């Protein structure tokens, strides 16, 4: 009897799972699994299942690889290896933020506009479909751009500082010097050099224009996009319900 009772004493206790009471709220994990299964059941939405969603970011990946190689070239392999976690963390953060914007435009906005057109933006007769399309689009655009345009603005600022400003300054000074030399000479011999340096200066000017546009977009998004979105949704609601 004693021997038979020993296994019962040393055996691990069984885990008893209490049944969920009727009306009890489901756990967040079960909700997530249920939503994933539901998305997999719809072919059009299966690609947006959070468990399997993998956005395609060709430009962001190319920028990440270029920045990674540039940093490795500037600081050297030894320093890069020593500070690899910090460098990789910063570059991956940059790649992630840019990928959010790129993926949203290439995988959401472009297909949506291609399928639905732009008649839902400000239609003459507001319907349920046009109201929902405009509202969802405005809210999604608001949440995507508010955090991501700042990263784009920082990247463009650095490009303008390290590439745009030097090309503008050096190109302008070199062209002015060559033109002054030609003014004292009997015949111009610096025409090809002036043309090449003018192209360099034009590149710097173009980068400066891009930076100005990005700065304007960033200021608008950070200050006025939320108000514009609220006003747009309110206008569409009034057009739909009050003045159909």
Word description of this protein:
77% of the residues lie in helices and 0% in strands. The relative contact order is 0.07. The protein has helices at 2-10, 28-40, 58-75, 77-82, 84-116, 128-184, 191-241. With 244 residues, it is mainly α. The protein is flat and about 75 Å long. Helix 3 (58-75) runs antiparallel to helix 5, helix 5 packs across helix 6 (128-184) and helix 6 (128-184) packs antiparallel against helix 7. Among the domains are: 43-99; 118-181 and 196-244, no CATH class. It is built from seven helices and no strands.
Give the arrangement of secondary structure elements.
Blueprint (H helix, E strand, L loop, with lengths): L1 H9 L17 H13 L17 H18 L1 H6 L1 H33 L11 H57 L6 H51 L3
Helix pairs in contact: 3-5, 5-6, 6-7
Descriptive tags:
244 residues, mainly alpha, flat
Summarize the structure.
With 244 residues, the protein is mainly alpha-helical. The protein has 7 helices and no strands.
Q: What does the overall shape look like? A: flat
| Secondary structural class | mainly alpha
- Between the first and last Cα atoms, what is the distance in angstroms? 86 Å
| Number of E-state strands | 0
Number of helices, counting only DSSP H or I runs of 4 residues or more: 7
Q: What's the mean pLDDT score?
A: 79
Give the biggest sheet: none
Strand content: under 5%
Unreliable spans are 1-13, 28-32
The H-and-E topology, N to C, reads as HHHHHHH
Helix fraction by DSSP (H/I, runs of at least 4): over 70%
Radius of gyration: 30 Å
């Amino acid at each position: 009897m004693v021997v038979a009772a020993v296994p019962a004493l040393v055996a691990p206790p069984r885990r008893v799972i209490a049944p969920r009471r009727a009306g009890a709220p489901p756990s967040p994990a079960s909700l997530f699994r249920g939503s994933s299964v539901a998305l997999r059941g719809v072919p059009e939405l299966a690609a947006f299942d959070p468990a399997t969603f993998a956005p395609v970011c060709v430009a962001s990946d190319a920028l990440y690889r270029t920045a990674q190689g540039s940093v490795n070239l500037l600081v050297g392999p030894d320093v890069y290896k020593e500070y690899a976690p910090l460098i990789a963390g910063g570059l991956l953060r940059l790649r992630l933020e840019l990928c959010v914007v790129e993926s949203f435009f290439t995988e959401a906005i472009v297909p949506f506009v291609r399928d639905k057109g732009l008649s839902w933006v400000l239609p003459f007769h507001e319907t349920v479909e046009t109201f929902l399309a405009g509202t969802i689009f405005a809210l999604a655009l608001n949440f995507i751009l508010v955090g991501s345009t700042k990263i784009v603005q920082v990247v463009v600022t650095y490009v303008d500082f390290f590439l745009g400003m030097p090309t503008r300054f050096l190109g302008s000074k070199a062209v002015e010097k060559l033109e002054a030399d030609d003014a004292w000479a009997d015949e111009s011999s610096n025409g090809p050099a002036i043309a090449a340096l003018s192209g360099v200066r034009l590149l710097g000017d173009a980068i400066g224009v891009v930076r100005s546009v990005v700065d304007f977009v960033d200021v608008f998004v950070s200050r006025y996009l939320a108000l514009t979105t609220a006003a747009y949704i309110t206008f569409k609601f009034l057009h739909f319900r009050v003045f159909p």
